[in-house]
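Reviewers asked in the last cycle whether our approach scales beyond single polypeptides. To address this, we selected a multi-component target totalling 568 residues and predicted its structure end to end. The input consisted of the following lines:
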Amino acid sequence: MVNLARLHFSGEEMERFSKKAEHVLEYIEQLKEVDTSKVEPTSHAVEVGNALREDKVEKFDKIVQILKIAPNHQDNLFEVPKVIDEA
Amino acid sequence: MKLKTLSEKLAKKEISSVESTQGYLTRIRKLNGKLNAYLTTCEKEALAAAKTSDERRARGKSLGPLDGIPIALKDIFVTEGIQTTCGSKILANYIPPYDGTTARVLKEAGAVILGKLNLDEFAMGSSNEFSAFGPVGNPWNLEMTPGGSSGGSAAAVAADLCVAALGTDTGGSIRQPASFCGIVGLKPTYGRVTRYGIIAFASSLDQAGPMTQSIEDAAILLNAIAGYDPKDSTSLNTEVPDYTQYLGKSIRGMKIGMPKEYFIDGIDREVQTAVETAAKQFEKLGAKIQKISLPHTCYAVPAYYIIAPAEASANLARYDGVRFGHRSPKAEDLFALYKNSRSEGFGPEVTLRIVLGTFVLSTGYYDAYYRKAQQVRTLIKNDFLKAFEKVDAILTPTTPTPAFKKGEKTADPLKMYLNDIFTISCNLAGLPGISIPCGFAKHGLPLGMQLMAPPLEEGRLFQLGHAYEQTTDWHSRRPTL
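The resulting structure, written as structure tokens, was:
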């Protein structure tokens, strides 16, 4: 799970962390008691219908500010460690 | 000073916005060391905005009740050109290239933004102890927490370091600190206020709201920030009433329900007594109190601690060190870049919730956990809908105890989570909820009560709250610092 979440723990941290996580997971197990066989799930408490808008292009003019706070960039591209092998 | 009071003084030219702003900035310089409520103060921008406000007023072109009023924002609201950290090391150097809608709307109303307020990292916490930039002190007793996650906001309002503040509330993060600090805190109906420009924690639960020294001030602020925003597709496209028209209306005949599941063993005696006394006060004012039941209340906290982390794990996936925020210097490949940037940047509570959230959404576990929690959420929501067929509003304590000591609950996550036991259902059901000061504990710590109403009925909360406030003086007391 830690890997899936793109995180990393040291050995000792992992132990402490696992204990905490287990503790919380035990607690949330109590939901099993509830009979939800005929219940629809709610993902949005206050229903909103299709919230659509016109597909109109709007000019965006803050590119300089975005690049200013980028950790590493070349022109308008964000630079990251190599992903594709040169084989 | 209350917003309404300052607004009147500005209108009568008894004080200028520059004078008021300077006063607050001086007070912040004097007291923020002790409280750590502010993470960033924008002295230059604030004084410039104040000056512009005064010039506007001199030309007879005042923008309304918020013009020239010094307020502050929880550091979760994105503000263009002003550092926005969300209480996290991963955004320690983040200077937003845009204003969120709420920040923009407040500036357009002429408000003066004094600075950005401390919070639990990514709004995950109930004590402000999980901030990467140090905890906040409760102005009533510095050894106590102010609550969280909008701890800095609550402390700043209580200590007169701003006229009013905006916070956000996902499981109680406006109401609980408001209760701990003796101020008013409102979480509006889900969708009433835009979420565009609020750094996202749990998208189906997050809401922004006012934290103020009086009910009237909260109504004035809500007038300004509520409304449809095309940039937030969950924002409600319904008219915003003038919430101040509910102030002063009689509450005779209004029915208030007190759910038995919220008055259980284990809540502090003084909290219980204060809320029961407040109920009698409501009766004196002509309201009718009745006992009701919200049977699925006990499942709200576990359901929340599946839903909120799940949504958080998705929302926090964007912090990867690529385009902004902290990037690890140790990154031999892309995977390491993600892993190290995130692990270096996030604090322990945030990583716990991200991993829990990842787990409950993962293949094989999604139905047993996430889907199950969403079904329980339906049952909780239906409890409220049924109750509101019989009553106009629901009265409960806001928190099970007054403010607790720093360090008391940080070791055990569950101990911390149970602080939100009375506030969480409101977020799950999308209802508006307000915390109102209703007394003081024997050690001088504030006590708060909560009122909840059906969706979009914030007016009832203001009507009831204002009527109560006019017959008590809890909200006028200020801590000595």
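The longest strand of chain B covers residues 433-440. We regard this as preliminary and will revisit it once experimental data from Aim 1 are available.
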